[in-house]
Amino acid sequence: MPAKKSKGVSEEANRPYSANDISSQLHGKVSPNQAKKILNDLADDGRIQRKANGKQQIFYANQSDIEVPSIEEAEEEEEKIKELEERVDALKSNNKSLVGRLQGLNSALTDDQMRERISKLSNEIKENDERLEHLRSGEVISPEEKAKIETEHAAMLKHWKARKRMFKNISDAISENYPGKMKDLFADVGVETDEDVGTDTAIIAAK
Protein backbone atom coordinates (compact mmCIF):
# COMPACT_ATOMS: atom_id res chain seq x y z
CA MET A 1 0.00 0.00 0.00
CA PRO A 2 2.76 2.58 0.79
CA ALA A 3 4.44 1.71 -2.51
CA LYS A 4 1.17 2.20 -4.41
CA LYS A 5 0.54 5.55 -2.71
CA SER A 6 4.09 6.73 -3.35
CA LYS A 7 3.83 5.79 -7.01
CA GLY A 8 0.41 7.45 -7.23
CA VAL A 9 1.70 10.74 -5.86
CA SER A 10 4.51 10.79 -8.40
CA GLU A 11 2.22 10.00 -11.34
CA GLU A 12 -0.60 12.35 -10.35
CA ALA A 13 1.56 15.49 -10.20
CA ASN A 14 3.99 14.28 -12.91
CA ARG A 15 6.93 16.19 -11.48
CA PRO A 16 10.13 15.17 -9.71
CA TYR A 17 9.86 14.22 -6.02
CA SER A 18 12.40 13.46 -3.33
CA ALA A 19 11.82 10.93 -0.55
CA ASN A 20 11.13 13.83 1.83
CA ASP A 21 8.53 15.22 -0.60
CA ILE A 22 6.71 11.88 -0.77
CA SER A 23 6.74 11.54 3.02
CA SER A 24 5.29 15.04 3.34
CA GLN A 25 2.63 14.38 0.70
CA LEU A 26 1.54 11.28 2.61
CA HIS A 27 1.30 13.38 5.81
CA GLY A 28 4.00 11.43 7.67
CA LYS A 29 2.33 8.05 7.26
CA VAL A 30 5.59 6.97 5.63
CA SER A 31 8.90 8.22 7.06
CA PRO A 32 11.51 9.76 4.73
CA ASN A 33 13.73 6.66 5.11
CA GLN A 34 10.82 4.34 4.33
CA ALA A 35 9.85 6.52 1.37
CA LYS A 36 13.42 6.42 0.05
CA LYS A 37 13.53 2.60 0.23
CA ILE A 38 10.11 2.26 -1.42
CA LEU A 39 11.04 4.68 -4.20
CA ASN A 40 14.32 2.93 -4.86
CA ASP A 41 12.50 -0.43 -5.02
CA LEU A 42 10.02 1.02 -7.51
CA ALA A 43 12.87 2.46 -9.58
CA ASP A 44 14.70 -0.90 -9.51
CA ASP A 45 11.52 -2.55 -10.82
CA GLY A 46 11.28 0.05 -13.60
CA ARG A 47 7.93 1.32 -12.34
CA ILE A 48 9.26 4.88 -11.86
CA GLN A 49 12.40 6.73 -12.92
CA ARG A 50 15.30 7.74 -10.69
CA LYS A 51 17.92 10.45 -11.15
CA ALA A 52 20.74 11.75 -9.00
CA ASN A 53 20.59 15.44 -8.20
CA GLY A 54 23.85 16.15 -6.41
CA LYS A 55 23.80 14.14 -3.18
CA GLN A 56 20.02 13.79 -3.40
CA GLN A 57 18.01 11.40 -5.52
CA ILE A 58 14.83 12.47 -7.23
CA PHE A 59 12.11 10.22 -8.57
CA TYR A 60 9.50 10.80 -11.26
CA ALA A 61 6.89 8.85 -13.20
CA ASN A 62 7.70 6.96 -16.36
CA GLN A 63 6.87 9.39 -19.12
CA SER A 64 5.95 6.54 -21.41
CA ASP A 65 3.02 5.83 -19.09
CA ILE A 66 1.75 9.42 -19.29
CA GLU A 67 -1.01 9.99 -21.81
CA VAL A 68 0.01 12.85 -24.13
CA PRO A 69 -2.96 14.89 -25.39
CA SER A 70 -3.40 15.50 -29.10
CA ILE A 71 -2.89 18.94 -30.64
CA GLU A 72 -6.66 19.38 -30.84
CA GLU A 73 -7.09 18.42 -27.17
CA ALA A 74 -4.27 20.76 -26.14
CA GLU A 75 -5.80 23.65 -28.11
CA GLU A 76 -9.20 22.92 -26.57
CA GLU A 77 -7.69 22.99 -23.08
CA GLU A 78 -5.90 26.26 -23.86
CA GLU A 79 -9.20 27.77 -25.02
CA LYS A 80 -10.91 26.64 -21.80
CA ILE A 81 -8.08 28.14 -19.73
CA LYS A 82 -8.39 31.41 -21.67
CA GLU A 83 -12.15 31.53 -21.06
CA LEU A 84 -11.67 30.85 -17.36
CA GLU A 85 -9.03 33.57 -17.11
CA GLU A 86 -11.42 36.03 -18.77
CA ARG A 87 -14.17 35.03 -16.34
CA VAL A 88 -11.80 35.50 -13.41
CA ASP A 89 -10.84 38.98 -14.66
CA ALA A 90 -14.51 39.91 -15.10
CA LEU A 91 -15.38 38.64 -11.62
CA LYS A 92 -12.45 40.54 -10.10
CA SER A 93 -13.57 43.74 -11.81
CA ASN A 94 -17.17 43.24 -10.70
CA ASN A 95 -16.05 42.44 -7.16
CA LYS A 96 -13.94 45.61 -7.05
CA SER A 97 -16.94 47.65 -8.16
CA LEU A 98 -19.20 46.04 -5.56
CA VAL A 99 -16.64 46.58 -2.79
CA GLY A 100 -16.38 50.26 -3.71
CA ARG A 101 -20.16 50.61 -3.76
CA LEU A 102 -20.47 48.83 -0.41
CA GLN A 103 -17.87 51.10 1.16
CA GLY A 104 -19.80 54.13 -0.11
CA LEU A 105 -23.06 52.82 1.32
CA ASN A 106 -21.45 51.95 4.66
CA SER A 107 -20.03 55.46 5.00
CA ALA A 108 -23.39 57.11 4.24
CA LEU A 109 -26.08 57.97 6.74
CA THR A 110 -28.68 55.38 7.68
CA ASP A 111 -32.24 55.82 6.42
CA ASP A 112 -33.43 57.10 9.79
CA GLN A 113 -30.51 59.52 10.09
CA MET A 114 -31.06 60.78 6.57
CA ARG A 115 -34.80 61.31 7.10
CA GLU A 116 -34.11 63.18 10.35
CA ARG A 117 -31.43 65.33 8.73
CA ILE A 118 -33.59 66.13 5.69
CA SER A 119 -36.52 67.04 7.90
CA LYS A 120 -34.39 69.31 10.06
CA LEU A 121 -32.78 71.05 7.10
CA SER A 122 -36.13 71.43 5.35
CA ASN A 123 -37.62 73.14 8.42
CA GLU A 124 -34.62 75.41 8.80
CA ILE A 125 -34.76 76.39 5.14
CA LYS A 126 -38.49 77.00 5.34
CA GLU A 127 -38.10 79.21 8.41
CA ASN A 128 -35.23 81.14 6.85
CA ASP A 129 -37.12 81.50 3.58
CA GLU A 130 -40.17 82.90 5.38
CA ARG A 131 -37.98 85.22 7.39
CA LEU A 132 -36.15 86.41 4.29
CA GLU A 133 -39.40 86.93 2.38
CA HIS A 134 -40.78 88.95 5.27
CA LEU A 135 -37.68 91.12 5.36
CA ARG A 136 -37.74 91.64 1.60
CA SER A 137 -41.32 92.89 1.84
CA GLY A 138 -40.12 96.25 3.10
CA GLU A 139 -39.02 95.84 6.70
CA VAL A 140 -36.01 97.99 7.38
CA ILE A 141 -32.96 96.07 8.58
CA SER A 142 -29.28 96.85 8.65
CA PRO A 143 -27.08 95.76 5.73
CA GLU A 144 -25.10 93.60 8.13
CA GLU A 145 -28.19 91.72 9.34
CA LYS A 146 -29.47 91.29 5.81
CA ALA A 147 -26.10 89.91 4.65
CA LYS A 148 -26.02 87.53 7.61
CA ILE A 149 -29.50 86.24 6.84
CA GLU A 150 -28.72 85.70 3.17
CA THR A 151 -25.45 83.97 4.06
CA GLU A 152 -27.24 81.60 6.43
CA HIS A 153 -29.90 80.97 3.82
CA ALA A 154 -27.28 80.16 1.18
CA ALA A 155 -25.47 77.83 3.59
CA MET A 156 -28.65 75.93 4.39
CA LEU A 157 -29.47 75.66 0.72
CA LYS A 158 -25.97 74.33 0.06
CA HIS A 159 -26.41 71.66 2.73
CA TRP A 160 -29.77 70.74 1.25
CA LYS A 161 -28.30 70.29 -2.23
CA ALA A 162 -25.37 68.26 -0.87
CA ARG A 163 -27.70 65.91 1.00
CA LYS A 164 -29.91 65.65 -2.06
CA ARG A 165 -26.89 64.62 -4.19
CA MET A 166 -25.83 62.08 -1.56
CA PHE A 167 -29.31 60.60 -1.45
CA LYS A 168 -29.47 60.44 -5.26
CA ASN A 169 -26.12 58.61 -5.45
CA ILE A 170 -27.30 56.05 -2.92
CA SER A 171 -30.71 55.60 -4.56
CA ASP A 172 -29.06 55.22 -7.99
CA ALA A 173 -26.76 52.50 -6.62
CA ILE A 174 -29.71 50.66 -5.08
CA SER A 175 -31.87 50.99 -8.20
CA GLU A 176 -29.32 49.12 -10.33
CA ASN A 177 -30.20 45.85 -8.61
CA TYR A 178 -33.62 46.64 -7.09
CA PRO A 179 -36.30 44.61 -8.88
CA GLY A 180 -39.20 47.01 -8.29
CA LYS A 181 -39.90 50.69 -8.68
CA MET A 182 -37.88 53.09 -6.54
CA LYS A 183 -41.03 55.14 -5.91
CA ASP A 184 -42.61 52.10 -4.23
CA LEU A 185 -39.47 51.54 -2.17
CA PHE A 186 -39.47 55.17 -1.01
CA ALA A 187 -43.09 54.80 0.02
CA ASP A 188 -42.30 51.64 2.01
CA VAL A 189 -39.44 53.23 3.96
CA GLY A 190 -41.17 56.60 4.38
CA VAL A 191 -38.88 58.70 2.17
CA GLU A 192 -40.33 61.93 0.76
CA THR A 193 -38.54 63.56 -2.15
CA ASP A 194 -38.57 67.26 -3.01
CA GLU A 195 -41.08 66.51 -5.75
CA ASP A 196 -43.39 64.76 -3.27
CA VAL A 197 -43.66 67.89 -1.12
CA GLY A 198 -43.62 70.37 -4.02
CA THR A 199 -40.20 71.79 -3.21
CA ASP A 200 -37.48 72.77 -5.67
CA THR A 201 -34.03 74.03 -4.63
CA ALA A 202 -33.66 75.83 -7.97
CA ILE A 203 -36.77 77.92 -7.30
CA ILE A 204 -35.72 78.67 -3.72
CA ALA A 205 -32.21 79.66 -4.85
CA ALA A 206 -33.68 82.08 -7.40
CA LYS A 207 -35.72 83.93 -4.80
Helical content stands at: 55-70%
- Rg over alpha carbons: 37 Å
Number of DSSP E strands: 2
Report, as a whole number of angstroms, the end-to-end distance: 91 Å
On the 0-100 scale, what is the average pLDDT?
A: 76
Structural class: mainly alpha
Total helical elements: 8
Report the portion of residues in β strands: 5-15%
Detail the poorly predicted runs.
5-9
Element-level helix/strand string: HHHEEHHHHH
Could you describe the largest sheet, including whether it forms a barrel? 2 strands, antiparallel
Sum up the overall morphology in one term: rod-shaped
Spatial order of the strands in the main sheet?
Answer: 1-2
Can you describe this structure?
By secondary structure, this protein is mainly α. The protein is built from eight helices and two strands. The chain has a two-stranded antiparallel ribbon. α1 packs across α3. The relative contact order is 0.06. Mean pLDDT is 76; it is low at 5-9.
